[in-house]
Design goal:
Layout: H1 2-42, H2 58-70, H3 72-75, H4 100-109, H5 129-145
Helix pairs in contact: 2-5, 4-5
Length: 153
């Protein structure tokens, strides 16, 4: 009789251990899927480290303030990119691929998404053409400080 009681107790412990192992494995699978899901959502987001130039021209200094006020919310500090907009300190935006006129046009009319998965950029009518020119100067000097120069495409 005592043997049967011990056998039942042992089987009960084995079931508990098996259930604990199954629960632990299930927890691991769910946690792994959550991590993969979060990683997948952010894999389309591109941000870059930006080296700042030692000095800026006067025009670029003025452009920096305008950039912060009008562009930084989406394009990030020093044009490094955010979840809302791409980094402008990227070779895609070198002057040979995206001329200054492309930046003027983007601010005036907006841009349909084409290089990045961020969605369309709306027009920025609050920024004058002259102000856009100063912003471009700021971005171009940042690009140059980061080795982004004109390349023919």
């Amino acid at each position: 009789m005592k043997k049967r009681g011990r056998l039942r107790a042992m089987k009960k412990r084995q079931r508990i251990v098996i259930l604990a192992v199954i629960a632990w494995v299930a927890f691991g699978v769910v946690a792994g899927l959550a991590i993969v899901s979060l990683t997948a959502e952010e894999s389309d987001v591109v941000t870059v480290a930006v080296a700042l130039p030692a000095t800026y021209s006067q025009e670029a200094q003025a452009g920096e303030g305008l950039f912060k006020a009008n562009c930084q919310a989406c394009h990030g500090p020093n044009a490094s990119g955010t979840k809302l907009g791409p980094p402008l300190i990227h070779d895609i935006y070198n002057p040979g691929h995206h001329s200054d006129e492309a930046f003027y046009l983007a601010a005036a009319t907006g841009v349909r998404a084409h290089h990045w998965p961020y969605g369309d950029m709306p027009a920025q009518p609050q920024v004058t053409r002259e102000e856009v020119g100063l912003i471009i100067r700021f971005v171009r000097e940042l690009q140059e400080a980061n080795g982004i120069v004109r390349k023919a495409y």
